[in-house]
Automatic annotation (TrEMBL):
<dbReference type="Pfam" id="PF10022">
    <property type="entry name" value="DUF2264"/>
</dbReference>
<dbReference type="InterPro" id="IPR049349">
    <property type="entry name" value="DUF2264_N"/>
</dbReference>
<dbReference type="InterPro" id="IPR016624">
    <property type="entry name" value="UCP014753"/>
</dbReference>
<protein>
    <recommendedName>
        <fullName>DUF2264 domain-containing protein</fullName>
    </recommendedName>
</protein>
<feature type="domain" description="DUF2264">
    <location>
        <begin position="61"/>
        <end position="406"/>
    </location>
</feature>
Amino acid sequence: MPKTIAATPRPTIPYEHPDAAMYFKLFKENIVRLRHRKSAYQQHDETIRKLFSNDGASLKAQCEALVAYTAEAFEHYAVWDYTHAYYPGRPSQQTARTDAIEGVSRVLPTLATWLHSQEGEYTPLQGLNGKSIDVVNIIRTALLAGTDPSHKGYWGKLHDYDQRICESADLALTLWLTKAHIWQQLDTQQQQQIAAWFEQIPPLKTLDNNWQLFTLTVSFVLKDLTGKEWVDHSKYQRIKEFYVGDGWFRDGANGNYDYYNVWGFFYSLYWIDQIDPDYDATFIHQAMSDFVAGYRYFFTPQGLPLFGRSACYRLSAAVPLLAAVDQQSSAIEIGEAKRAFRTNLQYFIANGALKSGAPTQGVFEDDSRLVDNYSGPASSFWSLRALNIALYVGGRTGLWQAQELPLEIEKGDFDFQIPAIDAHVIGTFKTKEVTVLFLSDYTQEQTPLSRRLLRQNLADKALEVVSGRALRPKNNLLRKGITCYTSKMSHFF
């Protein structure tokens, strides 16, 4: 029987139900966006695509080039001392300024993990244009300016259910990863200023799903850096209530079983385990291992059965595989994790998943049908979460030197079930295709016409351009009642 999880009422969130005042604010911020938006930085799009089309390139060289590609474009788009970055692309439901904060918060962890991975004396990152990029200065400047109430780029006073709660977790992780280079070099006043901004976050209310992990991440970082106890253990226990077995979490009491397990739950749990290795490590490691034991079968050299929301985060599919290797799980060998990570990056990037210095808003190239309304121009940088873990663990796990091992689909057919989520997984060796078939309906309130991917109508598109607020149709196929997903990803075309 499915696990019953006690539900809480969903709050009314202003940006989901904007009034006239909200639309006026959106319009004003959109004008600011237009004023500060720069030309698309496409200088190295073809270079990065060719590199990831080359089977002979080393994984480490590809990852380092991806960091350089990202950092160089970030310097181009960033404004106000690296506190905001206006990337080109479709807006979210948030204000344009919040979208621009995402352009910083979702990029800095990649720069931070690169910095953390450097051995010996610090040397600046080399951009693909051959110029030096001072990563330490970028992160230090951003953290000091973004937390300074008198600075133009101040990240602001947060409120309950604020999107910036989500972004604060990545900013806190950046602070933790770079503590030797930045935090420990700051004076007391600077440390207090940064800590004060983050200290507003733990008491705030969030959506009752994976969002609980954002405030927890901030709390664990604050505890590690300042010694003050901020961790709300009831929030962590609530996350564990979403656990249904076989390594899977439900994303909220009535939420989906989908890839948020990968780039939401296990990514955050991995970092919590790194920040405080004594905090419930047995559960975190076991859940990760149990998940990977079945999930590793999803990978093929050309795609994976992608289901749920936020399809644009697809480059992060290998997060738990790399994390499980670092936790010395017996569920996967490093050679298989390496092959899954590399082929996943190569397949999507070689087919257009990077453009103008950022992951595209789609599965391959840009595709507005697949951009959720909560996703903005820089939201897709969560696609670099697997890269972040690879950079962080690559040196100590031997990832870069490991010999690749074949994926399960490259060894033969398979057929098994994941009881906790009522899913049937089928691998066909001859076609190298993996299919995930859900054995129960998420909903029966759909028709053949409503199940298809919808396109935005012209009126909504025009209002989106003027207001700067997303007005796109919702195309989460799980919620449309689709039960069968294939690594050929035919649903997305």
